[in-house]
């Protein structure tokens, strides 16, 4: 294959500190049975990229458990496949990397060994289906040095307060902006997907070491919008950036929209670690509306506008609305939940009433009993 | 030193399952879908793994394509092993003679070389058409403790049903003195479950003798076991208590599926201490829409429900559109039920499309039996299928 993939699993952990406290951004559970890394990793596989390095920094146990040998993505290969790249320290520097460029320094060997001509880099901060092949084609067709993927949003469509945006002229990126407030009519938000020749990336990394450059966007992209041909590729499909807990909540809820759900899932090619659960069981008193539900649940109460992960139990008389309930959480009899994000293994006792609000969901940490 | 296995399991999965009619037209019985997520073979395979038996030969013959690809390298059951694991054993061409598997015993006889690779002390023989959870290691301990040559698992059945089974008559110490195949006047209610443990050397001896006998039907129940008994080998009955169902008929397959439903189901597959493993489909989570009703049902991932589902079992990727009603039925994977179609007391096999407003089956109270629609069929809009009908061709509005 002509491209090697690099996925940064940790780089936006601060977006959702609640959920990323105990895991990488990439291993945050999403949409009943997935984790955020499933989207870029599946995009890689579906684009024919079969050598993928996942760069980690901290809290990556859950990520390693999830990715395993890569078999569930068909990436358990003799030749290539998926490899997790933990931080690499030598005798002189024992500190962890703090930027994308430093992280790339730590994987020079991985880059050296890969014999692919191009490299696709992406983060784990979004739910979208991007065909990286099309981006590579576009990159080659335009004789670009670097191609960055962006998504055009109209005002009010993008919930994050700040973002990296581009001014794009005839497909070429002419300016990079950091927006504190997005108040224009429309704006081109960077999706954190990069395509370039592997040799160029290697040069950039070496150059950054010798000139002590730290920031990829500032020191490499923004500084070179004139000196290099940096193209923008517009992603026209669904894109939900996980930029905050609110955005995480909203993008989960987007999956209840038939059009979005079918765009993301209908071709059955978002891969994830396969876990065996019994099928979901609905009791006589179950009332379920507009909800997405994983296998292994037992539902005897009422579920509306919600996302239920594996092995969730909703006892008789319990009511859960507008909520995200993760794996193994138990909702006791006659409990009531509204606008809640319950992490894994939460227990809600009988008759408890909890509510957040649609513009401020209430988060319950892993393993908490209420 | 040669590595060896204490016990090797041989799973008889070649039967046609002709009493399942349209459900086994082009699929072996052990590969028939069960309980939404499983296939029948998941039960003996999972039992093996949970009992610590990691070497399983699966003897296939009839329509093995789906079964073969389902088992694959055995990874879903943790049976992808370097030494042992699961092996599919189809009939093969030999240097001097080649043959189909002529009977259950002949199938194992033709694969003695597979067994001997592992130099086992014991061989467990299983069939691929039973739904149950059983710890074979307890049965093996019983076999060893009694110094038996053959141990047969047996279950107590109601007296009125005993004449449908192979009945085992035992002495007070559990040793067998007589077999009766479907006796009119059963002396006991202990029915053979079709699960045998043999001491490997004895099995080999009797299989070799049996193969030399041109009059033999090469069947365990008819030939090998009676022969062993008549030769005075020590044969024990191992009494099993728990859920066990032969799903060889439409009615029993339906019943066993329905036994999964309810708050306290007769048969529980959710128990994590004895997990039933299966090859899971890669399907997105199920979606239950506005206006949907899901009462007392089991539903798998990939389903999208906008209609009514009651007392039913839906396997993965079933679409139930608005106004459609499914009651007391089993729907296998990839079925589309269009608007306002009604399915009652039926089994719909995989990849069937049920057209708008079509009617399939009639309530059980009508007494016509279970309607069955075979795989890959199309039931046109407005078509009507009577209760008890077995459908193996596309149905238009005017009939076949």
Structure notes:
The complex is a heterodimer of chains A (370) and B (400). By secondary structure, chain A is α/β, with parallel strands linked by helices. Helices cover 21% and strands 30% of the residues of chain A. Chain A has 10 helices and 28 strands. In chain A, strands 1, 4, 5, 6, 8, 9, 10, 11 and 12 form a 9-stranded mixed beta sheet that branches. The longest helix of chain A has 13 residues. Chain A is globular, with a radius of gyration of 21 Å. Chain A starts with a strand and ends in a 6-residue tail after the last strand. Chain B is an alpha/beta fold. Helices cover 18% and strands 27% of the residues of chain B. In chain B, strands 5-4-1-6-11-8-12 form a 7-stranded mixed beta sheet. The longest helix of chain B is centred in the middle third of the chain and has 13 residues. Chain B is globular, with a radius of gyration of 22 Å. The chains are: A alpha/beta (370), B alpha/beta (400). Chains A and B meet through helix 10, strand 14, strand 16 and strand 17 of A and strand 14 and strand 16 of B.
In short:
Chain A is an alpha/beta fold and 370 residues long.
Primary descriptors:
heterodimer; A: 370 residues; alpha/beta; Spore Coat Polysaccharide Biosynthesis Protein SpsA, Chain A; UDP N-Acetylglucosamine Acyltransferase, domain 1; 2 domains; nine-stranded mixed β-sheet; five-stranded parallel β-sheet; 10 helices; globular; B: 400 residues; seven-stranded mixed β-sheet; six-stranded parallel β-sheet; 8 helices; 27% strand
Would you identify the regions of chain B where 5 or more consecutive residues have pLDDT less than 50?
none
Helix segment count of chain A? 10
| Radius of gyration of chain A, whole Å | 21 Å
Quote the beta fraction of chain A. 25-35%
CA gyration radius of chain B, whole angstroms: 22 Å
How many β strands of chain A by DSSP?
28
